[in-house]
Design goal:
The protein is mainly alpha-helical. It is built from 3 helices and 2 strands, in the order ααββα. A two-stranded antiparallel sheet has the order 1-2. Keywords: Membrane, Transmembrane, Transmembrane helix.
Length: about 110
């Protein structure tokens, strides 16, 4: 006799339960990844299209460049950009000045 014919009704229910549980885990994992990606893209778009063009960012950028004497902290060349050493998670615009540094275009590209 083969093993399938020896399975009881309870065995089939257990197998079905395990299969459904695995399916739910896979779907929920995919959904979390999908929604996280959408939120990340939304935050990134806001950051690029709104925050970096705001007066608050322009003031903060000026303060950082002036603090570093308009010099790249990595190579000493003229700094034209400000690099975030860290990001404030979920709170764009609340980063402290100490998390920012003046950099030239070339060093900024290397940092990313």
């Amino acid at each position: 006799m083969d093993k399938l014919s020896q399975l009881t009704s309870d065995d089939y229910k257990t197998i079905l339960f395990v299969f459904i549980a695995i399916l739910i885990l896979v779907i929920s994992s995919w959904y979390k990844r999908y929604t996280w990606k959408r939120k990340r893209e939304s935050r990134r778009d806001y950051y690029r299209n709104v925050y970096l063009k705001s007066d608050a960012w322009k003031r903060k950028r000026y303060v950082v460049l002036k603090r570093d004497n308009w010099k790249c902290v990595h190579c000493g060349a003229r700094a034209t950009q400000v690099h975030h050493k860290r990001y404030a998670p979920k709170n764009i615009g609340t980063e402290p000045i100490k998390w920012l540094e003046s950099v030239c275009e070339f060093c900024h590209d290397d940092l990313h």
